[in-house]
Design goal:
17 strands; nine-stranded mixed β-sheet; binds 3-hydroxy-3-methylglutaryl-coenzyme A; globular; alpha+beta; HMG_CoA_synth_N; about 25% strand; about 400 residues; transferase; three-stranded mixed β-sheet; Peroxisomal Thiolase, Chain A, domain 1
Length: about 400
């Protein structure tokens, strides 16, 4: 029986107005900048302006998709985040007025740490298998924030990735097989009363590697491809070195040697964007995919491995095949412009943004005008977020 392929038809990325160079942070923390540039593989990180949040970057990521494809038959919108702005209302509902989402749609927010975007993709594929005429907009949007002057601080970042998931996709057809692993572990979490995550860094690194390996074992048990069949391995990247560590661990667990050149060939092209954007939690894996598609030689017909990890924890190993003609559908120029157009912060400005807290008194508060991105948080009033297009 042949079935219509389902997968990623379009992918669009947005990030914040500001960025901080890791050299600035290294100087402040009194460490060698190469600990960040080489040791964790991060050079810069995106930082949200006072008038940005996950809604503004999600809208900026999703708008180009609606402009290119319209809204017909988008009957489901799934927004994955762990930086939610409300405990009740789904963040994507704000997108109706900002970018014109259709009303004849179910709109839901998903959460499981950095894994949420992958859950969205899997749910979307299921809905489209049920009715191939439908299209699903999946958005992953996050702002990663750790306490100042802690080991987690250099692994902050922010981005949103929007994906249109359809039958007969133009970019990546998803294989129906997935490997899964979940376990109750306290490696990283953020209680409702905190704006910054709590993390046990070393435990999280080990938990990620174990979960990726277990998900791979399950993928094989389900009849998935062999390691040698993949042209590239796209990992969740809390920092880019993590992808190399996890891939080395996976190869060695399967009795393979992991030479530096082999690791670079498997991972290198997936890290270009994450190296300068930082951890974008749910979006990070899909930013890795964008980086791979934008920077690798022709991948037509090649199989890609996708490895998703969300602390707490859930991991999924899945795969897809790159579609003929995919290059005509990429947004390489816009992706690069989103990164190169960021304004660089000095340390004091970065610290002030980090320490700022949103008003909670319900009065009217206009937000400082900072971002030059398409959407901004204009004000807080009556406990409501008032968004505007610029
Ligand atoms: P640390 O303990 O400060 O760093 O923080 P370190 O001392 O381990 O050094 C890092 C690396 O830099 C080491 O290399 C050093 O040798 C090297 P490694 O041994 O790892 O290969 N180094 C240098 N290299 C070159 N020149 C130098 C130099 N100095 C040192 N001069 C840690 C590291 C990752 C623990 C910290 O950044 C952290 O806590 N980050 C947050 C947690 C995290 O990102 N965990 C990743 C796995 S969990 C995950 O991915 C889920 C997550 O995204 C959340 C979610 O799911 O929602 C986080």
């Amino acid at each position: 029986m042949t079935t219509t392929p389902v997968g990623i038809h379009d992918l669009s990325f947005a990030t914040t107005h500001y960025a901080l160079d890791h050299a600035v942070l290294a100087e402040r923390l009194g460490v060698d900048r190469d600990k960040f540039y080489l040791g964790i593989g991060q050079e810069r990180m995106s930082v949200a302006a006072a008038d940005e949040d996950i809604v503004t970057i999600a809208a900026a990521a999703a708008q180009p998709i609606l402009q290119r494809h319209g809204t017909d038959n988008i009957r489901t919108v799934l927004l994955a985040t762990e930086t939610g702005v409300d405990q009740s209302k789904a963040a994507a509902l704000y997108l109706h007025s900002l970018i014109g989402l259709p009303n004849a749609a179910r709109v839901v927010e998903l959460k499981q740490a950095c894994y949420g975007g992958t859950a969205g993709l899997a749910f979307a594929a299921g809905l489209i298998a049920r009715d191939p005429s439908q299209r699903v907009l999946v958005i992953a949007a996050d702002i990663a924030k750790y306490e100042l002057d802690t080991p987690g601080e250099p692994t902050q970042g922010a981005a949103a990735v929007a994906m249109l998931v359809t039958a007969d996709p133009a970019i990546l057809a998803l294989d129906p097989i997935s490997g899964l692993y979940s376990a109750d572990i306290m490696d990283f979490w953020r209680p409702n009363y905190r704006s910054e995550a709590i993390v046990d860094g070393k435990t999280s690194v080990n938990a990620y590697q174990k979960a990726a390996q277990e998900a791979w074992s399950d993928y094989r048990r389900q009849g998935g491809r062999e390691l040698g069949e993949f042209a590239a391995f796209c990992y969740h990247q809390p920092f880019t070195k993590m992808a190399y560590k996890a891939h080395r661990h996976l190869l060695e667990s399967q009795g393979h040697t992991a030479e530096a050149a082999d690791l670079e060939a498997a991972i290198g092209a997936t890290t270009t964007y994450n190296r300068t954007v930082g951890n974008s939690y749910t979006a990070s894996l899909y930013l890795g995919l964008a980086s791979l598609l934008d920077h690798a030689d022709d991948l037509t017909g090649k199989a890609l491995a996708m490895i998703s990890y969300g602390s707490g924890s859930v991991a999924e190993f899945f795969s897809g095949t790159v579609r003929p003609g995919y290059r005509a559908h990429l947004r390489t120029e816009a992706n690069q412009a989103a990164i190169s157009s960021r304004e660089m912060l000095d340390y004091d400005h970065y610290r002030a943004l980090h320490e700022a807290v949103l008003p909670t008194d319900g009065a009217y508060h206009a937000m400082p005008e900072e971002t030059r991105r398409p959407f901004r948080l204009g004000a807080m009033s009556g406990h409501k977020r008032i968004y505007e297009a610029r």
